[in-house]
UniProtKB/TrEMBL annotation:
N-terminal signal peptide: 1-17
Major localization listed first in the record, in broad terms: secreted
Source superkingdom: Eukaryota
EC number: 3.4.21.4
Protein name per its UniProtKB record: trypsin
UniProt organism field: Drosophila persimilis (Fruit fly)
PANTHER family on file: AT26814P-RELATED (PTHR24276:SF91), POLYSERASE-RELATED (PTHR24276)
One BP term from GO: proteolysis
GO CC field: extracellular region
Protein's cellular compartments: Secreted, Extracellular space
Catalyzed chemical reaction(s): Preferential cleavage: Arg-|-Xaa, Lys-|-Xaa
Pfam families: Trypsin (PF00089)
């Protein structure tokens, strides 16, 4: 039911010119990237995980329970299969330490739309349980979207600039929520592409970018968004766009039981 990634990229490129949604811009290999990030430790973001395909980090995720991870739907598109996926948790470094656990299965939102990026959410079930600790913790799902202007943070692995080299240590940025109505207004450049399952966040010269897809947007101590897409990275007038966890909460609660 999923388009091959090469076909998906071609379709998106034709629709958006040279700029693709940030989590889908091609890289070889894919790597995490936080623009304008500051080094941090997993103890400050213990819900953060690295989603690894065939041994390499390529997306982020957040721990919902000792067996369930939430990430972006586009991180799980065909030809990705559970057999090539592992999750690394409990470490500040994407390539070493912590717990590396095989993925048993995953489920993508049935109404995920690769063109509009609506419902860009998926859940992963791990083959073995994570052992919860000070560096491996669950995060609660937001019941309502934070208000426009609320403080938030994004974490992930990667470089400190769009064209810089990747970082092996976890990075984070402080940012501010841009409400859905504001993000789709004439203040910014997205217009009607901002839909009801999306929420935005922006800070000058700071953003999530390729490979941070699926990672957490946190506000008020709860998960409010999942890194989804954007116009390049940290580009003026183009906030980062996230799957809105509050809008997708009921699906997430149900999917945890069926994946």
């Amino acid at each position: 039911m999923f388009l091959p990634i090469a076909t998906l990229l071609a379709l998106l490129a034709s629709s958006y010119g040279a700029a693709l949604p940030s989590g889908l811009e091609p890289q070889a290999p894919l790597s995490g990237r936080i623009v304008g990030g500051t080094k941090t430790t997993i103890a400050d973001h213990p819900w953060q995980v690295s989603l690894q395909r065939s041994g390499s980090h390529y997306c982020g995720g957040s721990i919902l329970s000792n067996t369930i991870i939430v990430t972006a739907a586009h991180c799980l598109l065909s030809p990705v299969t559970a057999s090539v996926l592992k999750v690394r948790a409990g470490t500040s470094y994407k390539n070493l330490g912590g717990s590396l656990v095989q993925v048993a299965a995953f489920q993508v939102h049935e109404e995920y739309n690769a063109s509009s990026r609506m419902n860009d959410i998926g859940v992963i079930r791990l083959k073995n349980k994570l052992t919860l600790s000070s560096t491996i913790k669950t995060i609660a799902l937001a019941a309502s979207a934070p208000v426009h202007g609320a403080a938030a943070s994004i974490s992930g692995w990667g470089s400190t600039s769009y064209s810089g080299s990747s970082s092996s240590q976890l990075l984070y940025i402080d940012t501010r929520i841009v409400g859905r109505a504001e993000c789709g207004s004439s203040t910014y450049g997205y217009g009607g592409t901002i839909r009801e399952t999306m929420i935005c966040a922006a800070a000058a010269n700071k953003d999530a970018c390729q490979g941070d897809s699926g990672g957490p947007l946190v506000s008020g101590g709860v998960l409010v968004g999942v890194v989804s897409w954007g116009r390049q990275c940290a580009l003026a007038n183009y906030p980062g766009v996230f799957a809105d966890v509050a809008a997708l909460r009921e699906w997430l609660l149900a999917a945890q039981k069926t994946v």
